[in-house]
Amino acid sequence: GKHTVNLDSKIADVRVKPFTLEMGTKFELHVTISGKKINISEVPDLSIPEDWMRDKLELNFYKSEQGGGGEIESVNYDKQSRTAVITFLRPG
């Protein structure tokens, strides 16, 4: 519906309209696991900033049973080669 918003000494009438959010993107990673590092290849080339991809990779492997998981020391992501190396704080 319609709403009135007071902005300092001015009043603005606004109308709320629903909108559809885009669905998330699913993708597959190829992983090689060692004691403290995970090497990831074939990271999909998504149209998102590189720091977002690093965050997504970190969240996926932080305390993840599927990925081995644990506290992460660093995530090195190379968009051009579509690879990443995740280093954990402790081997496991």
Automatic annotation (TrEMBL):
Segments forming domain NID: 2-73
GO cellular component term of the entry, any: cytoplasm
Superkingdom as given in the UniProt entry: Eukaryota
One Pfam assignment: NID
InterPro entries: Nmi/IFP35_dom, Nucleotide-bd_a/b_plait_sf
PANTHER family: INTERFERON-INDUCED PROTEIN 35/NMI N-MYC/STAT INTERACTING PROTEIN, N-MYC-INTERACTOR
Descriptive protein name: NMI protein
